[in-house]
Amino acid sequence: MLYQFEFRTYQRKFKRPLQTSHGIWDTRSGIILRLVGENNQIGWGEIAPLSWFGSETFEQALDFCQQLPGNISSEMIFAISAELPACQFGFESALSNEQNSPPPAPPCQGGEKSENLTYLSQKEEKRLSQYSGLLPAGETALQALQVLWLEGYRTFKWKIGVAAIEQELKIFQQLIEAMHNLCDREKAFLRLDANGGLNYSEAKTWLEACDKVKTTPDFSADIEFLEQPLPVTQFQEMVELDAIYATTIALDESAANLDHIQECYSQGWRGIFVIKPAICGSPSQLRKFCQTHNIDAVFSSVFETQIGRQAALNLATQLSLNNRALGFGTDCWFDDNHSILDFRF
């Protein structure tokens, strides 16, 4: 079957730059895809690369789209190279959307739904699954925690490995105390994300601090996991640390795409994988692998728009085994309300 193919690029500025150990990120760039089938059904997809995380660059994705003809087949889509994982995700998502659901339209001004918009409302999403809220790095996390708590979040993710470890450990203690004080007969969870920015000694220091929290009697705040403490090249060291400490380690950059997930699994990793569907590669192959091996996965956003978000959530709700909060609490990082995405194809 042939599909008419069109695409548009977009750029969205963050309200405040996102700080990670990889550097500062101030603008999310991506590509919106539209496929029109012979039955005039429309499928929307999104390419949201994250090159510093291991996907293709935005320029490579754009070049790939520009070289495609105006009419493409499903065979061409499933033949996209694994070297273009964000493209694999975007095109397969558009194809799946066209085949299996009413065609969604791009987000409208104000984020309201048009007649054929199939995105879930925020309330529906939160009933569907629990989400984790992303806290900014540094002391501003303390103020952001209060806001996200009032919005209903009970799992939070905080970036570390950005400032001096002594400074971050001090903020960490304040953050944990604040979470404990906010809790009322319920549990709150914190995920620490180092983005591979720690050395071995620093990772041990963080794990020791986390273990102290986990062993504190009658404490309402808990550490769910320490995410990617060491660089990808230090996989065996992370295996070793995961066996020593009570605090769980989760792989993130080490599991950047399906090939890497499979490699880590073949080397014996049976812990948590943080999976970012939008840059992981083929959704159909990811689904098959996860269902075959029953891996413990946490699904996470790469700050895609609602188009990529829905496709990623479709996978997450099918493949999440342990009811872990989904890492899609990212809307508050933008204030454009999707208005720049009101494309006219």
Structure in words:
The protein has an eight-stranded parallel β-sheet with strand order 11-10-9-8-7-6-5-12. It has a four-stranded antiparallel β-sheet with strand order 3-2-1-4, sandwiched between helices. The chain has twelve helices and twelve strands. The chain has helices at 58-67, 74-78, 85-100, 122-128, 140-151, 165-182, 200-214, 235-244, 258-266, 277-280, 283-293, 306-319, and strands at residues 2-20, 23-36, 42-47, 71-73, 131-135, 155-159, 188-193, 221-227, 249-251, 272-275, 296-299, 326-329. Residues 99-121 and 124-129 have low confidence and may be disordered. Helix content is 38%, strand content 23%. It is of the alpha/beta class and 345 residues long.
Give the strand content: 15-25%
pLDDT averaged over residues: 88
* Biggest sheet descriptor: 8 strands, parallel
Report the uncertain regions.
99-121, 124-129
Shape: globular
Helical residue percent band? 25-40%
Total beta strands: 12
What structural category characterises the helix and strand content?
alpha/beta
Biggest sheet, strands in spatial order? 11-10-9-8-7-6-5-12
Number of contiguous helices: 12
In angstroms, what separates the terminal alpha carbons? Answer: 21 Å
Q: Spell the H/E element sequence.
A: EEEHEHHHEHEHEHEHEHEHHEHE
What is the radius of gyration computed over CA atoms, rounded to a whole number of angstroms? 20 Å
